[in-house]
Amino acid sequence: MDDTLKVLTLGFFAFLTLHASLERRSSRAAETQVNESFHHTGTVHATVEARGMFGLLANDIWAIDIYSSHQQSDKLPFYLYPKPGWKGSIRHLRLHFSDFTLAGLPIDRMDADIPFAKYDLGQALYKNRLLLRGAGEGPAVVQVGESGLQTFIQRKYPRLMRDVKVDITERQVTISGKLALFTGLSPFSATGTLVPRANRFIDLQEPTILLDGKPLSAVAAENLLKSINPVLDSEKDLKLGGFFRLSRVEVKTGTLSIFGTATIPPAPPADTTPR
Question: Does this model's pTM top 0.85?
Answer without folding.
Answer: no
